[in-house]
Amino acid sequence: MHHATSRFTESTELCADSIESHPSIPLIFAESTYQVDQDQKDALVSSSPAYTRRGRCNLKKASIDIEGKVTCSIIDSWEGAAVLDTKWCLAKSHEPSPHSGVLGIADATGCLNLMKLTTEDSQFHLSPWKVWQMNDEGALCLSLDWSDRGPNEMATDAKLILSQSNGTLCMVPSLNSESSLKDEMQVWRAHDYEAWIAAWDCWSNGNVVWSGGDDLSLKGWDMRMTIQSGSRDPTFTCKRGFDGGITSIQSHPHRPHYWAL
What biological process terms from GO does the record include (predicted)? Predict the structure, then answer.
């Protein structure tokens, strides 16, 4: 077995949740973290004190010198609720525009924060664009994925899939739609417990999603199938070999029908 050699190590200060390299800009990546803080005031009067989840998303740039030494620096930072996942979307960013992609930040308040990657004085910045409230139940947004992550994809728009702690999946059919989010969004119960992960099959033209959850189930979904009474039938369900639940899924970008779990 081959072992990877670490070329750079540093503390992220808070608990690390996600690292996402920019798909087309070398050495630029987003690092996301979270922390759970106990409310000391509530702790004095309650045996079950409230907890606050805070987080940070750092936009970082890596540098490699002539000797191969790696260093990383923070070039911008966003602070808010705990960050559970991030994903880059490049829809429309290949056209003349003031941004170089959109970073989706899924947080613990049930929001998806959309940040444009902009440039000012030759320096990259995360500029707030939209905030989508994905649920009104206090559920955490656990993971997200964009449908434009396929091989050689140059999309003018992208679909969103997002998983939540109440076991539901949410699909938004257009990043750039001007319609009401509630009118556009499709929501259905996918798992009995936390839906830890959802990802597009990057070879399906935005039609097929896989998801995994704390109910030890791997499921497939076809977006062309209708939702009835908040329910959508999975194309398959697999529970073999997932004793610890399913926390991460990725469609192979170069070979169709291959997935990493």
Answer: protein histidyl modification to diphthamide
**Full pLDDT tens readout for the chain, 261 residues:** 778 888 888 888 889 989 999 988 999 999 999 988 776 445 444 444 445 789 999 999 999 999 889 999 999 999 999 999 999 998 876 554 556 899 999 999 999 999 999 998 888 999 999 999 999 999 999 999 999 977 655 678 899 999 999 999 999 999 988 788 888 999 999 999 999 999 999 999 999 999 999 999 999 999 999 998 889 999 999 988 778 889 999 999 889 999 998
Please indicate, yes or no, if residue 205 is contained in any of the structural domains.
yes
> Would 70 be classed as within a structural domain?
no
**Number of domain units in the chain:** 1
Domain hosting 234: range is: 134-260
3-class secondary structure for 94-163? CCCCCEEEEEEEEECCCEEEEEEEEEECCEEEEEEEEEEECCCCCCCEEEEEECCCCCCCCCCCCCEEEE
In a domain, 18, yes or no: no
